[in-house]
Write a structure and sequence with these properties.
single chain, 410 residues, Peroxisomal Thiolase, Chain A, domain 1, three-stranded mixed beta sheet, globular
Length: 410
């Protein structure tokens, strides 16, 4: 690899509306259990048309977290730290003093910080009062709150790479962490993303006529790639991976789940919300070039699959143009909704689990593929397959495109 370091995944952790372990989440996937529900909490917002969301209900912080630690963390950071703690424990590094000597960094992001604190600052501007504001309000609302809180909570002194890029926050976090290790900057990184569910996020897409209005049938939406899809559903959660330089992992006898072999990221440079299939395809090709692989090496593509009209069409046409109609594709957003800053990390985690289990998750609610979508092998039920390489793609507002390639470890 021309002197570059090899990068492997040695820990994984996450939190979703369908659970916080792959055993639990995958069982729900297999049983076609949706994490989407009617959000009665949003009924007070009369101008918000959608009432659907994928919340993490009944989350409680671990009992060993201290009050002092919690002060700087809104829900989005609590989710990120929770996922990071599970990933570090999974990697056997949670109590390892070596992670605190500068060898481990963090690459993490979210679409925004915690909105309760943003609301408090807005209240100050609107009503000239500082009610609800305190010394930690900004820390909880700042765009890099997840990366900073993960670093501080675990005493990590390596580089911090905040990735607040909406739907690519998690995948950019993994990609930039991979590059930091690949180019020899440090041997260990915590990488991923998180999001907390807020009606303002639903309103963002509502204003674009891009939210699902199947309020009376929550489990029938979202419907990625389906001809009857009517928009996305917002979810929440967090995903974090421990990335490690291969020799460092082997030296400490770490369990290796997969190797990160390719990352591509670019920009459409055209429209802030309308995706461009040509640059999406280029991002995937960049990941292939980085990995030194032909398109034929990829066995499965984990699609972005938001269930929006333009997004689904552009993404699948780009994927089909590069890989052909035989490429299997599916989207876990059909189960969890669009978790925004978390989705790239969660879907990378799921991709690794599917790669290792040889059982690939289907797209829920996909009854009839939209003929305008690209010709691909759309998974409508779980499928047993064995592949050496899988790709995970994510695309965000601002025209940001990412593609990651994972290799089976054996």
């Amino acid at each position: 690899m021309n002197g570059f370091k090899r990068v492997v995944v040695t820990g994984k952790g996450g939190l979703t509306s369908l659970g916080d372990s792959w055993v639990q989440i995958s069982e729900n996937f297999r049983n076609n259990l949706s994490g989407i529900r009617y959000m009665s909490e949003w009924e007070r917002f009369s101008e918000l048309n959608t009432r659907l969301g994928g919340p993490v209900d009944n989350f409680t912080v671990p009992s060993h977290w201290t009050r002092k630690q919690l002060r700087s963390m809104g829900p989005v950071s609590r989710y990120a730290v929770y996922a990071a703690e599970r990933a570090l424990a999974d990697a056997g590094l949670l109590d390892d003093p070596s992670i605190k000597d500068g060898r481990m960094g963090v690459a993490s992001g979210s679409s925004t910080g915690s909105t309760e604190d943003i609301k408090a600052f807005g209240n100050m501007l609107l009503n000239s009062v500082a009610h609800g504001l305190n010394a930690n309000s900004y820390v909880r609302m700042m765009p890099h709150t997840t990366a900073a809180n993960v670093s501080i909570f675990f005493g990590l002194k390596g580089r911090v790479l905040p990735t607040s890029s909406a739907c690519t926050s998690g995948s950019q976090g993994i990609g930039y962490a991979y590059e930091a290790i690949k180019f020899g900057r440090l041997p260990l990184m915590l990488a991923g993303g998180a999001e907390e569910l807020c009606p303002t996020e639903a309103m963002v897409f509502d204003a674009l006529y891009a939210t699902s209005l199947k309020n009376d049938a929550p489990h029938t939406s979202p419907r990625p790639y389906d001809t009857a899809r009517d928009g996305l559903v917002i979810g929440e959660g967090a995903g974090m991976l421990v990335l490690e330089e291969l020799e460092h992992a082997l030296a400490r006898g770490a369990h290796i789940y997969a190797e990160v072999v390719g990352f591509g990221s670019n920009a459409d440079g055209a429209h802030v919300t309308k995706p461009e299939k040509d640059t999406m395809q280029i991002a995937m090709q960049m990941a292939l070039d980085d990995a030194g692989l032909p398109a034929s090496a990829i066995g499965y593509v984990n699609g972005h699959g938001t269930a929006t009209d333009h997004g689904d069409i552009a993404e699948t046409q780009a994927t089909s143009a590069l890989f052909g109609e035989q490429m299997p594709i599916s989207s876990q957003k059909s189960f969890l909704g669009h978790t925004l800053g978390a989705c790239g990390a969660l879907e990378s985690w799921f991709s690794i689990e599917m790669l290792n289990s040889d059982l690939y998750v289907h797209t829920l609610n996909l009854d009839e593929v939209d003929p305008r979508c690209g010709a691909l092998d759309y998974l409508r039920e779980p499928r047993q397959m064995q592949h050496e390489y899988v790709m995970n793609n994510n695309f965000a507002f601002g025209g940001i495109n990412t593609s990651l390639i994972f290799k089976r470890w054996s």
